[in-house]
Amino acid sequence: MAGSKKNKSKKMLSPSNSIHSPPIPDSHAQDELMDDLLAQLDSRDGTVQSESINILNEIQLNKQVEITETGKKQSAKSRFQARQARKAASIAQTHSPDERKDEERLVKEAEDEERDIGRLCHDLLLQVHEINPDGHCLFSAIADQLAILGILSPPQANYTTVRQTASQYMLSHPNDFIPFLPAFEEDMGGDAEGGIMSLEGFDRYCASIRDTAVWGGEPEILALSRAYDVPIHVIQGGRPPVVVHNPRDGPVDEGRIVRISYHRKMYGLGEHYNSLRPQGPLSHFSKRVQTILSSSLG
């Protein structure tokens, strides 16, 4: 794909298409090429991006040379060339070498994270079940797990039910959560001087968890672990590989563990949670999970 666009652009930029030659391709054809190059800049393939940027720079330089050779004569052709040159320059500037390096670094980090999570899931006999990245992902992932465990019926296993449960549990146990939530005076009615969220602010916070698509995190995971009396294990890239949330002290039932994955880099929208479904019946891998988990946490 990149090669065909490059060949197409070279034909347009060759000496036979200079200002002393037959008319250049019409503006529609050049606009199509520019749109193709712009689309290729979004590619995760560094080679494709690099070739597209080089072509855009060639377009810019050739147009500038042609416009210089025409002097001040502003024909329709030269005005079109000037417009294309400015467009090429603008696009190329937004993809500077530093920005490309940053993009390549982010892509590598996402690939490393995906590999780490995939390797651990393979060892634990789990498979990633993709959850829609709509702001409700944590609650949808836990709902999916609760349905697998038979804790919620299929009609109940949705983010609305789980959000309501998290909100209600937090409202019923304010002292367990308020000290760990940041105070935002204008948004949450918090006490800015003390740095502690007010009860009014906490009520608003819990209402947002219940009624909106605000993202959930550690406080909500803890609340749901306690509300449903299930351990929640969060698999992630890096260290530690598994973050364990237990509802209480003491031994846990391996057959009642909620397992979700946490992705920092994999999704463009930011942090994301997926559900981790077993590759087979729960009884087939519970002992394997216990062995690997003990090793990873030790």
UniProtKB/TrEMBL annotation:
<feature type="compositionally biased region" description="Basic residues">
    <location>
        <begin position="1"/>
        <end position="11"/>
    </location>
</feature>
<dbReference type="InterPro" id="IPR038765">
    <property type="entry name" value="Papain-like_cys_pep_sf"/>
</dbReference>
<dbReference type="Pfam" id="PF02338">
    <property type="entry name" value="OTU"/>
</dbReference>
<feature type="compositionally biased region" description="Basic and acidic residues">
    <location>
        <begin position="96"/>
        <end position="109"/>
    </location>
</feature>
<feature type="domain" description="OTU">
    <location>
        <begin position="126"/>
        <end position="279"/>
    </location>
</feature>
<feature type="region of interest" description="Disordered">
    <location>
        <begin position="70"/>
        <end position="110"/>
    </location>
</feature>
<feature type="region of interest" description="Disordered">
    <location>
        <begin position="1"/>
        <end position="43"/>
    </location>
</feature>
<dbReference type="GO" id="GO:0016579">
    <property type="term" value="P:protein deubiquitination"/>
</dbReference>
<dbReference type="InterPro" id="IPR003323">
    <property type="entry name" value="OTU_dom"/>
</dbReference>
<dbReference type="InterPro" id="IPR050704">
    <property type="entry name" value="Peptidase_C85-like"/>
</dbReference>
<protein>
    <recommendedName>
        <fullName>OTU domain-containing protein</fullName>
    </recommendedName>
</protein>
<dbReference type="GO" id="GO:0004843">
    <property type="term" value="F:cysteine-type deubiquitinase activity"/>
</dbReference>
